[in-house]
Specification:
The chain is of the alpha/beta class. The protein has six helices and ten strands, in the order βββαβααβαββββαβα. The chain is 30% helix and 21% strand. It is globular. It starts with a strand and ends in a 5-residue tail after the last helix.
């Protein structure tokens, strides 16, 4: 099995400016993902590549052991570009660099670092054991259920549950999950298509047995900082 680990981070961040290299617990945020990538790479026989359009992110990444000559093109570094497209581009670069064709790409998101080595290895194992699966991604239990406790405006101007159905309790509604954005594994076939996506008709999930969340707003960053610096939670 040939596997590539990607660490992807754009320079522009509107929700939390500079979040990829903002410090938590005495380290830039990206350092936690780089350390985990370099830790699991030998166990998976994997190569590791950085994808960024930012010279500052490239400099900080190099300080933590991840260097690259790859520069993400501008058209893959805007708000409208899907991340799988950027992953595919750096995968093609790495294939030329290392002279191999990858069977899988494992993407570790910088802004959702609450993952363990066991999470990563188990996810790779599960997709390998299911030849029909195109992707597997990490999820967490969700606080609200669109079949029961989430509403939206309907065409008639009134409001109803997002997903139609008659469920009298949360427990009776279909189980749903939050994508926590931490770990994705793509089979090569999932990236070799016109519009690659993480969620496909043949996707698996891995429910993390611990807290994990993505950093979208400043409050998310402060909460993670409190967990790391205040509670001593290890990333």
């Amino acid at each position: 099995m040939n596997l590539l680990i990607t660490v992807c981070g754009r320079g522009g961040s509107k929700g939390i400016p500079g979040k990829n290299i903002k410090e938590i617990g005495g380290k830039p945020l990206i350092a936690y993902t780089i350390e985990k990538a370099l830790e699991v790479a030998p166990k998976l026989g994997a190569d590791v590549e950085l994808s960024t359009d930012s010279e500052e992110i490239r400099r900080v990444a190099a300080e933590w052991g991840l260097t690259t000559d790859y520069v993400r093109p501008d058209y893959l570094a805007n708000d409208t570009c899907g991340k799988p497209e950027a992953i595919r581009d750096v995968m093609l670069y790495a294939e030329k660099k290392y002279g191999k064709r990858y069977d899988y790409v494992l993407d570790l998101d910088i802004t959702s670092p609450l993952r363990t080595e066991e999470d990563i290895l188990e996810m790779v194992k599960r997709i390998e054991e299911c030849p029909d699966a195109l992707t597997i991604f990490s999820v967490s239990p969700c606080g609200r259920n669109p079949y029961f406790a989430m509403v939206e405006e309907k065409k008639n101007g009134f409001y109803g549950v997002v997903c139609d159905g008659v469920y009298k309790s949360r427990q009776a509604a279909p189980k749903v999950y939050d994508m926590n954005g931490s770990v994705y594994v793509y089979r090569r076939e999932a990236l070799d298509c016109e519009n690659p996506r993480a969620v496909t008709p043949r996707s698996l999930i891995y429910e993390m047995p611990h807290i994990c969340f993505d950093l979208d707003e400043p409050e998310d960053f402060e909460y993670l900082k409190w967990r790391v610096e205040g509670l001593g939670v290890r990333i």
